[in-house]
Design brief:
Number of helices: 5
Distance between the termini: 48 Å
Order of helices and strands: HHHHH
Shape: elongated
Mean pLDDT: 88
Structural class: mainly alpha
Largest sheet: none
CATH topology of the largest domain: Helicase, Ruva Protein, domain 3
Oligomer: single chain
Length: about 120
């Protein structure tokens, strides 16, 4: 399998770089090396969907229902993707663009429980 070969090659390259930097005593304490593949746009969209589903479940408990369309999910995926940090900024974007706005509207009274 080509993907498995690529993974093993990457793992071997990482180990070789570690050997150049760290002493054998330290390396002997490392049990395993795990190489993570970079996230692509489709992965980020799937993560957005999972995060929105989790948010929706939390809001359902307060009898508040949200619907996030595909375009909004694409906007969140674009804004929350960082090639260096992966999906980490995504949670901040969801909090800033959705959760914070909902909180403000709840405090103002423009959104009430059982609203959609």
């Amino acid at each position: 399998d080509e993907e498995k070969d690529e993974y093993e090659k990457m793992k071997e390259n990482v180990l070789n770089e570690l050997k150049k930097t760290f002493r054998p005593e330290f390396l002997n304490r490392i049990d395993e090396i795990i190489v993570f593949h970079s996230l692509n746009k489709e992965h980020i969209k799937q993560i957005v969907s999972l995060m929105i589903n989790n948010l929706s479940k939390r809001l359902d408990e307060m009898n508040i229902h949200i619907k996030v369309d595909e375009k909004a999910m694409d906007i969140l995926a674009d804004a929350g993707f960082d090639p260096v940090y992966g999906a980490r900024p995504l949670q901040r974007e969801i909090r800033r663009r959705i959760e914070d706005k909902l909180s403000e509207e709840l405090l103002k009274g423009t959104i009430k429980k059982s609203d959609t």
